[in-house]
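Researcher: Here's a chain I'd like modeled. Treat it as a single chain, no partners, no ligands.
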Amino acid sequence: MNLPKNMRVHNRAVILILMPVTIFLWLIGWTLFWTGSKNQPTTPKPTAETHTTITTTTLLENYEEYNT
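Model: Modeled as a single isolated chain. Structure tokens:
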């Protein structure tokens, strides 16, 4: 593809301007991601109990009879 010389210079100037900005923004994003992942707790947070435990027992009427 044959582009005029001033168009090629213009494209290089745009690349030279945008490349440092892109790298700088990528570094900021990567740093925020990296520090955010280090702040997460290693143990999961306890959740509220959503069910009720029902315990059953058997009552003996004449305990002395069964004690022999």
